Input
Amino acid sequence: MSFQVHGKDLLARIGTLTTKSGSFQTPHMFPVVDPNRPVLDPKFYLESGIRAIMTNAYLLKRGRPGQLPKDVHGTLGFKETVATDSGAYQILEYGHVGVKPAEIVAYQEKIDTDIGVILDFPTGFHSDARRAGWTVDETVRRADEALKRIKRTDILWVGPVQGGVHIKEVGRSAVEMGKRPFSIYALGSPTELMEAQRFDVLVDMIVAAKKGLPHSRPLHLFGAGHPAMFPFIVALGCDMFDSAAYALYARTGRYLTSDGTQELAEIEEFACMCKICDNINPEEMRHLDTTEREQLLSKHNLLACCSELRRIREAIRKGHLWDLLEHRAYANPAFKKFLAKIIQHSPFLEQFTPTVKPRGISHFGEASDHRPEMVRYSARRLRVPVERGKAVVLLPGRWRRPYHEDPRNLPIVSKLANRSNVSICFYTIPFGPAPMELDETFPLAQTESFDSRDPIMYDQRAMQVAEWVKRLSPKLVFLVSEGEYGVAIGKELLGRSMKLKVIRIHATGSKPDRTVGSIIRLLG
Output
């Protein structure tokens, strides 16, 4: 087994996972195949670029009572990577399964699976803290038993993390499972949360698991199969997930998109241009017989998942995954809450976000204030060495970057930058105060933003600028004031009990040479 990481953004990774039957790219969704009721021809998976699928070893075993185990690849007609689940979800559904943990491990080895899951004990959505703790302990006990029973090291074994909605138990489970030599780790019990759109709890569960597990191994999220969710769970560090939703939704006439779910009965025109939707219209699809309609819808739903994964991987490569999160957040209020909860963990995401990216970033508004690059900049700004007692010159940071290269700032900066008694700072929309020392660093010089003209935003940024000025303990402040933002800064500087001497110079109508001349004269 090898897991090679080729790109990172936030907690997301582009990687290649190699098994004994082949390699596939992550992030990846395993289409779950019902071994007793397959919906699609296995060739369709390969034609769609899918190199790994999943089936349920427990259902496979139960569906063939008394028969010798068969090679799972031959049974499914799929030669590349096959992962098998152990039947733990059936415990969650029905309370028990008629198979022992050691038995299901041996069965997965006999059917020659590539990725096998031990039979854990899922916590579920409704367990109290005591029950959750017991399921964690029982899963650890079963993990130790399985590790003693495992004979085949060419199979990648998955260690499930339990704990349900009890975040401390999830963290404890992750630490305990992380001590055990599994090739892949997985977070269990999220399905009911996702169905209830309790994404706030799901975020805390994933983060707790990530903090407790080794980052060198892939993390799988059980039961996540809606493309609209993919950017969020990938951003939190889920490398893989599995679902039969593509087929289950098709069975009830539901059509998946990256923004949500639509009812086939209500669609007049397909916006999707996949090979299914490009060859049939909604009216024609509605008039097909049940089996054919289900197959076509399943194919579209699966292709919608594949398309979203490609979009996510490309966003990771470009360093734009946060932009995709913000875009998706406006598709549904539930996804807005999803992002809001992720924002609470921005400092954790910042630890894993690349320091420099191949392209600049975008600042769209309040949510963008919390993207890891902004969090990192705020911390870096506080580490800038400062000399107290200088004169501070505040200049507007406009569209041109670096800010000092703005034609209206350059004459001022060129004459003041080398003066030992002057500290230059730009007041900007995305960053608030931007000291001259950081003007050419990432992401200041590479950020696209816009001025929303929001008075509340101006006041917030003005407070940040005033805090920066206060830190410098200046003897004199020159504020080159422009627009409402400049006015807000002036009010903030004069309104605070800092006993500052503030000289305001209106940028509008004042030529840069005259402005810098006035500053130099007053500096003496």
In short: Residues 400 and 406 are 5 Å apart (CA to CA). The longest strand covers residues 2-9.
